């Protein structure tokens, strides 16, 4: 799930970059400067110093002069972006990029602290990815205000705790929820993807957390592209009649006491 999303975000970033001829707005420049100044000197590539147009900063994508995407990775093998290693907390100033549609932060082990409340202002957000960082706290409930959100990925962040916000089920466009390899507890909300169109496929990744309870009955009616709740503490019978993918049951493996197709029958 993660690799396909990285590819789609990279293509989205390249498309936005090609349409970035217009100078970015003063408000976006101010927000990016505040973002830059939140980290130690020399964190960012030279493009952040040499260009008067922030749309040409490496890792920044624009459309019609507005910053619409941010992509930061420390991966030395990413040939589309210069590696950036962020040391510090997630800056609140990102929330001032009012046209931002996509944020992708990858492989940042020195990035700490919670997701700032100021990010609640990102009303145009479509792709939200934070992968393999040391950020902490809960998954913010304000994400349910991102009515355009298509994909939510916060994974491999072992300091992310708390429960899965049930309010995510109110997002009619949300097709991908990837919250694998965190430290989440509680139960799986039964209303996830409840507003999704019947023709749309859903992807849910919740593996390697501390989730309890049962699989929601509503999951039997969802058109799944991928479902992975393995390596939790779930129990009970898997809802009958579901078109679960993968069909071999691996998405339900290594739980406390799940049973029923595609796993062995309940006793």
Structural notes for this entry:
- It is a single chain.
- The protein has 267 residues and is α/β, with parallel strands linked by helices.
- The protein has one domain: Leucine-rich repeat, LRR (right-handed beta-alpha superhelix), CATH 3.80.10.
- 12% of the residues lie in helices and 24% in strands.
- It contains 3 helices and 12 strands; from the N terminus they run H-H-H-E-E-E-E-E-E-E-E-E-E-E-E.
- The strands form 2 sheets. Strands 1, 2, 3, 4, 5, 6, 7, 8, 9 and 10 form a 10-stranded mixed beta sheet that branches. The chain has a two-stranded parallel sheet with strand order 11-12.
- A hairpin with a 2-residue loop joins strand 1 and strand 2.
- The longest helix has 17 residues.
- The protein is elongated.
- About 2% of the residues have low confidence.
Secondary-structure topology with pairs:
Blueprint: H1 2-18, H2 26-36, H3 47-50, E1 60-63, E2 66-73, E3 88-89, E4 102-113, E5 127-138, E6 151-155, E7 159-161, E8 176-178, E9 202-205, E10 224-228, E11 235-237, E12 257-259
Parallel strand pairs: 2-4, 3-4, 4-5, 5-6, 5-7, 6-8, 8-9, 9-10, 11-12
Antiparallel strand pairs: 1-2
List the defining traits of the structure above.
single chain; 267 residues; alpha/beta; Leucine-rich repeat, LRR (right-handed beta-alpha superhelix); ten-stranded mixed sheet; elongated
């Amino acid at each position: 799930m993660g690799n396909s999303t990285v590819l789609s975000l990279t293509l989205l970033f390249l498309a936005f970059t090609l349409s970035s001829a217009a100078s970015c707005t003063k408000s976006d420049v101010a927000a990016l400067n505040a973002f830059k100044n939140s980290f130690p000197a020399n964190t960012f590539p030279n493009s952040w110093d040499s260009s008067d147009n922030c749309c040409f900063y490496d890792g920044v994508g624009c459309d019609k002069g507005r910053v619409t995407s941010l992509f930061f990775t420390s991966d030395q093998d990413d040939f589309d972006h210069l590696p950036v290693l962020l040391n510090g907390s997630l800056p609140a100033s990102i929330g001032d990029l009012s046209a931002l549609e996509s944020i992708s932060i990858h492989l940042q082990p020195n990035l700490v602290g919670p997701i700032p409340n100021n990010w609640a202002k990102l009303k145009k957000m479509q792709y939200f990815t934070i992968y393999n960082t040391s950020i902490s706290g809960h998954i913010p409930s304000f994400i349910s205000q991102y009515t355009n959100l298509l994909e939510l990925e916060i994974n491999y962040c072992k300091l992310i705790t708390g429960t899965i916000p049930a309010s995510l089920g109110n997002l009619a466009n949300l097709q991908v929820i990837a919250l694998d390899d965190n430290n989440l507890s509680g139960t799986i909300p039964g209303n996830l993807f409840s507003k999704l169109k019947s023709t749309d496929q859903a992807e849910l990744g919740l593996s390697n957390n501390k989730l309890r309870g049962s699989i929601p009955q509503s999951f039997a009616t969802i058109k799944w592209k991928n479902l992975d709740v393995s390596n939790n503490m779930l129990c009970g019978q898997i809802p009958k009649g579901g078109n679960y993918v993968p069909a071999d049951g691996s998405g339900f493996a290594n739980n406390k006491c799940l049973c029923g197709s595609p796993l062995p029958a309940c006793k």
